[in-house]
Amino acid sequence: MTRNDGFEYREQLGPRDERQSLLEYLSGRYRHSSAREWRSRIESGQVLLDSERAEPEAALRRGQTLVWRRPPWNEPDALEAFEILYEDDDLLAVCKPAGLPTLPGANFVQATLLYRVRAYRADAAPVHRLGRWTSGVVLFARSRIARAELARQFAAQRIGKRYRALAD
User: Fold this and answer.
1) Cα–Cα distance, 62 to 17 (Å, whole number)
2) Could you tell me the pTM of the whole model?
3) Which CATH architecture has domain 2-74?
């Protein structure tokens, strides 16, 4: 298992969020935790509004920045290795093994291909993804121009993904 460094969830509140209390908003929007758990997080300073501690009953306003500092947790096991297939100033192509999530989600933050590739090249941004249990090539852009061009080529279907399955 990988013990991560925790994670900071950040969002900007919109017009639909106004006039709700912080506790109502969090417990209504993020139902993975009860109102009691959200109250405890707010009161312990894990939830901030505009970089300040807030009370559970604080009325929300459009444009406020809400931050939830999730403490470190043990992520599920995932493979660590990936192979670099190609690299230049604009592009990085890596071979992702099955079992390694491409992007954060479902309790994975650091045990992901994105986290590990960025430890190698901080400027790498994935152009597409593959599911956790799919192996194959993942392309990373290393510049804004390359990212836009690759996105354009994917949209125009000049480049794409092809899946192959092996069966017994």
Assistant:
1) 7
2) 0.74
3) Roll (3.10)
